[in-house]
From TrEMBL:
ChrR-like cupin domain sequence ranges: 106-195
InterPro entries: Anti-sigma_ChrR, Anti_sigma_zinc_sf, ChrR-like_cupin_dom, RmlC-like_jellyroll, RmlC_Cupin_sf
Pfam families found in the cross-reference section: Cupin_7
Signal peptide from the UniProt entry: none
The protein's name in its UniProt record: ChrR family anti-sigma-E factor
Cross-referenced Gene3D superfamilies: Anti-sigma factor, zinc-finger domain (1.10.10.1320), Jelly Rolls (2.60.120.10)
Domain of life: Bacteria
Organism lineage: Bacteria, Pseudomonadati, Pseudomonadota, Betaproteobacteria, Burkholderiales
TM ranges: none
Length: 219
C-alpha cells in the first residue's frame, strides 16, 4: 500500500506542464502506479481546463494571419535522415521488479560503486540531457550519510524500503525533500532498496568523504 504521495502543488505543476524534466519524470513514475494520484491529477487537469475556458480571448498581432499562411504555402523541408533506433540500455534489476513506464526512452548506466553495499546508475533523459536523474541501489541495513538539500530532491521508491527518521518509505512511496529536511535514510534489514531520484541544486552531505562521493553522482 502506498502511504506517501506528491502534494497538490507538485501535481498541479505536473498538470500545467511547468515541472522540470527530471521532476516531471519522478512524478509520472509515481502517478502511473498510484490510483489515488491518478484521480487527483485528472481532477486538477479538469480544473485547469475549466479555468482556460473562462479566460478572455487574446488579440493576436495583425501580421499573425499572413505569417501563418506563408508558413502553410512554404515548400516542405527536405526530410532528415533518420538514425537507426537505439535500444535503451539499463542496469539489471532484482527478479520481479520492472521499470516505470515513465522511463520509456531513457537509458541508464550499469551499476557503479558508490560505497560499501551502495551502487548508483546515471539516468539519461533523451529530451533533456541536463536533467539530474539517477538510481540508487542500497544494501540491506546500509544508510546514506546525514544530509540536507540546497533546493529540491524527489525520490520514488521502486523496490524495498527505508526509514529516514521522519517516516517509513516502501514500494511506490514518494518523497520530496528541501533545505528544511535534514535526514539520514537507512534501508531496512529485510533487503536492499532501489530508488529513482531527481535533484535540483545539490545534496549537502556532512563530511568530506560523503561530499566527494556525492559529487560523483551529481548529488
Amino acid at each position: 500500500m502506498i502511504h506517501h504521495h506528491p502534494d497538490d502543488g507538485l501535481l498541479l505543476a505536473q498538470a500545467a506542464g511547468t515541472l522540470s524534466s527530471g521532476h516531471s519524470l519522478l512524478v509520472a513514475s509515481h502517478v502511473e502506479a498510484c490510483a489515488e494520484c491518478q484521480a487527483r491529477l485528472r481532477e486538477l487537469e479538469s480544473i485547469g481546463g475549466a479555468m482556460l475556458e473562462q479566460l478572455a480571448p487574446a488579440v493576436l498581432p495583425s501580421q499573425s494571419l499572413a505569417e501563418a499562411m506563408a508558413a502553410i504555402d512554404a515548400p516542405p523541408a527536405a526530410p532528415k535522415a533518420k538514425a537507426p533506433p537505439r535500444r535503451s540500455s539499463r542496469p539489471a534489476l532484482p527478479a520481479g521488479m520492472s521499470w516505470p513506464r515513465a522511463l520509456h526512452g531513457c537509458s541508464a548506466t550499469a551499476w557503479r560503486w558508490l560505497g560499501p553495499g551502495m551502487r548508483w546508475s546515471r539516468v539519461t533523459v533523451p529530451y533533456d540531457p541536463a536533467a539530474n536523474v539517477f538510481l540508487l541501489r542500497i544494501g540491506a541495513g546500509k544508510e546514506l550519510p546525514f544530509h540536507t538539500h540546497s533546493r529540491s530532491e524527489l525520490t520514488q521508491v521502486l523496490h524495498g524500503a527505508f526509514h529516514d527518521g521522519r517516516a517509513l518509505f516502501g514500494p511506490g512511496d514518494f518523497d520530496e525533500a528541501d533545505g528544511d529536511i535534514h535526514h539520514q535514510p537507512k534501508v531496512l534489514a529485510a533487503g536492499e532498496c532501489i530508488c529513482l531520484a531527481s535533484v535540483e541544486g545539490r545534496v549537502m552531505f556532512q563530511g568530506a568523504i560523503a561530499r566527494m562521493l556525492g559529487s560523483l553522482v551529481g548529488m
